[in-house]
Design brief:
Radius of gyration: 19 Å
Number of helices: 12
Strand content: 15-25%
CATH architecture of the largest domain: Alpha-Beta Complex
Largest sheet: 10 strands, mixed
Distance between the termini: 46 Å
Shape: globular
Number of domains: 2
Length: 314
């Protein structure tokens, strides 16, 4: 199988260099190509790629187009039978990709696979979740999912992940993290690429949902392991932007995949949450702007996506 590795970066020069070096050191046995799409970085990332990694196809945007749009930009030029969407804050290990490619080769009904992600210190963590419903978002927004993370009633997928992680056997899941997502080209041709209405967050959830509904199987393959430092590009985003992006992405997802009642109840939950936060947060807190924009989105006063105006300092 030929492989195209697509990496989106925003001001992650140091981690991007480590990522590209790891691909060189632990390149897959299959024929492959690498794309880097830079989303308007100001830290010298494009120059680094051009000078140190001439084998990489660099696409340098003048501004931040978002994760989904930047990946689609590279996808339009990629030639591989398999596409690996890889975050710039990851590093490959000697056998990171072979178990994933083997699974796709042996199981034609499997359309999307993802590896075990672990921190540099060695701790692995779950990157699988059920398709988000209102209960899932209620637990997430109230913090209950965080505080009762190991409770099987609150987070049943934790148990599924632990069993698969111990056994090493692949397991079917609803969706996988977009930090290291391997997808058959046929899946993307059938259901379409990332929805560019998602700026950052839930574009991977949306893609997996569309693939699953089209009959493709999505699997967590625990024997494939990568290092994921986490927060590379997202930590560079300005205050409040990720809150806005994540919340409007939830609204967009439910409008696409949920019922009218689901959308109404989600709006009520979010309206109560962000009205309270707006009342309690300090006037100097940069998140106030995001909270106001979320409330405007709920009321239909702005689009349920991140706009160019949102990327300006607030």
């Amino acid at each position: 199988m030929t492989l195209s590795i697509l990496i989106v970066s925003f001001n992650t020069k140091g981690m991007l260099e480590q990522c590209l070096q790891s691909i060189r050191r632990h390149s897959p046995s299959a024929s492959y190509e690498v794309f880097v799409v830079d989303n308007g970085s100001t830290d010298g990332s494009p120059a680094l790629v051009a000078e140190r990694f001439p084998e990489v196809r660099l696409m340098a945007n003048s501004d931040n187009r978002g994760f989904a749009a930047a990946n689609n930009q590279a996808l339009s030029l990629a030639k591989g039978e398999v596409i690996l969407f890889l975050n710039s804050d990851t590093c490959l290990l000697p056998d990171s990709l072979r178990p994933l490619l083997t699974r796709l080769e042996e199981q034609p009904g499997v359309g999307i696979v993802g590896p075990t992600e672990r921190l540099e210190a060695g701790t692995a963590y779950p990157t699988i979740c059920p398709s988000p419903d209102l209960w899932f978002l209620f637990l997430s927004h109230t913090g209950l999912r965080h505080y009762f993370y190991t409770n099987p009633r609150i987070n049943p997928y934790r148990q599924i992940w632990e069993l698969a992680h111990r056994s090493g056997e692949p397991v079917a899941v609803d969706w996988l993290s977009g930090g290291s997502l391997m997808v058959r080209r046929r899946v993307l041709e059938e259901v379409g690429p990332f929805d560019e209405g998602y700026f950052f967050y839930m574009e991977d959830t949306d893609l997996c949902e569309r693939a699953r509904r089209a009959g493709w199987r999505i699997e967590y393959v625990p024997r494939g392991v990568i290092i994921h430092h986490g927060g590379g590009s997202s930590e560079k985003a300005k205050g409040g932007l990720l809150t806005l992006s994540g919340t409007v992405s939830e609204l967009r997802y439910f409008r696409k995949h949920g019922s009218g009642l689901d959308v109404l109840l989600l709006k009520a939950l979010l309206f109560a949450e962000y009205t309270l936060k707006l009342l309690l947060v300090r006037s100097s807190d940069p998140r106030r702007w995001a909270y106001r924009e979320i409330l405007r989105t709920i009321l239909g006063l702005r689009p349920a996506t991140v706009t160019k105006e949102d990327l300006c300092p607030h």
